[in-house]
Here is the input.
Amino acid sequence: MNKKSRKEYRIWLAMKARCYAPSCKNIGLYQKNGIKVCDRWLHNFDAFMEDMGPIPGDDYSIERIDYLKDYCPENCKWIPLKEQQKNRSNVPTYTYNGETHCLKEWSKILGFNLDCIRGRIRRGMSFEKAISGDVYHRQIFINGESKTVREWCDVFGLKPGSVYSRIHRGTSPIDALTINQEAIKK
Here is the structure.
């Protein structure tokens, strides 16, 4: 067995363990949903390889296209681990302005600190409230560089309280940070 097929073999074994092994931590979830491995794959690694083909890379794993259906050729594909992690049933997604993403994606899209949003939601805030009006943890771009308001205050030697006060009075975060900052106006 070559190196690549060893990884595929481990994936095949793990797939079966999720559905049948009493010691597998996820067995309740898979059994509760009636997820099984198709007869063709259950005891035949070669059939699994014939249907799935070689894994495209070390950073790939198997995914069920419809998570409520069995492991079988028509319901499985190789997928990058980063993509699969977003599709896990325990990764919450949030819809805002007609788009649905996980928190990590929203933090990048909106320029918010991920830990800040996650902490607010854990403390009981709705997603919309957690992201509304928060300029303090949002990433601010100045001269192509991204930092939070507090980080920019450190760079410019400003007192965060003064900058936050300007923002509360309606000044944009960039203007609040760059008032009297000749170094920025390059």
User: Anything to note?
Assistant: Strands lie at 60-64, 76-80, 93-96, 99-102, 140-142, 145-147. The first strand starts at residue 60 and ends at 64. DSSP finds eleven helices and six strands in the chain.
